[in-house]
Amino acid sequence: MTPYRGRFAPSPTGPLHFGSLVSALASWLDARANQGAWLVRIEDIDAPRTVPGAAEDILATLERFGMRADEPPVWQSQPAAQALYQRAFEQLQQAGLVYPCGCTRKEIADSLLQAHARNTTLAYPGTCRDGLHGKPARAWRLRVPDGDSAIVTFQDRWQGVQTQNLATEVGDFVLKRADQQWAYQLAVVMDDAQAGITHIVRGADLLDSTARQIYLQQCFGIATPAYMHVPVVVNEHGEKLSKQNGATALDPARPLAALIAAARHLGLDSGGSPPATLEDFYAAAIAAWAKKTAMNA
Ligand code: GLU
Description:
- The chain is of the alpha/beta class.
- It has helices at 18-33, 54-64, 79-94, 105-117, 166-170, 184-194, 207-220, 255-265, 278-296, and strands at residues 5-8, 37-42, 74-75, 98-101, 139-142, 151-156, 160-165, 173-176, 199-203, 226-230.
- The chain is globular, with a radius of gyration of 20 Å.
């Protein structure tokens, strides 16, 4: 059996908050409960959204909270990673799977609105599939298959069986953005493969991206890892907690209280007296996680 390799992949758009702590903790507990390695990748691919100093801050907070990566963290902005995405993109291009797209956001939004009015698909309508119609190339898209080959099904370890039709629900998706940044979907697939990740544990807000990632893995002949999408933390308006909607940074001086709350969010209420130290917390949480996920399996 391939040894377990998991990861936490924060985007450095601000300090670690309670929502990202839940994802970090879930991936950490799953790796530890399976005697696996736990890695950290800084997803700073989206240069315009990256906040200087946020990555260092996240790494320091993780460490403070008792989660230290088993290997040095990798950064998507590193030249080696950028070269990896470029090679992957060229491979898809050579296979005839990539085409340039000249649509602006507004044009896509307009055609989606029309589709919505007709109560049909909300996927990218494929406007540039057969040519740019005289428009300049902006982004680059991956051609998704038609018919039954567009259906991706996978077993999520938390959410159960998931199915998405890439053609009708997503459409040809962006690999390289109009601002010349690599798209998250391409980068995450190449990074996880490069790091030999076998198990992905992350927030359920990424459930919708997983079929795209599995399809990309299939294009490259990469083995699909096991997926688990844990419930996201929402604010009082039911929105996912994020730096954008004002989630507050964790207090590095009080790791235990936040960890206990994060474990409770994951349904790991141990019932006993609250742990007094980080060691006690992790021992109980790893055991509770092993029990819970064995039941899910
Ligand atoms: N960087 C992504 C985020 O912070 C996570 C990506 C992933 O786990 O695949 O939402």
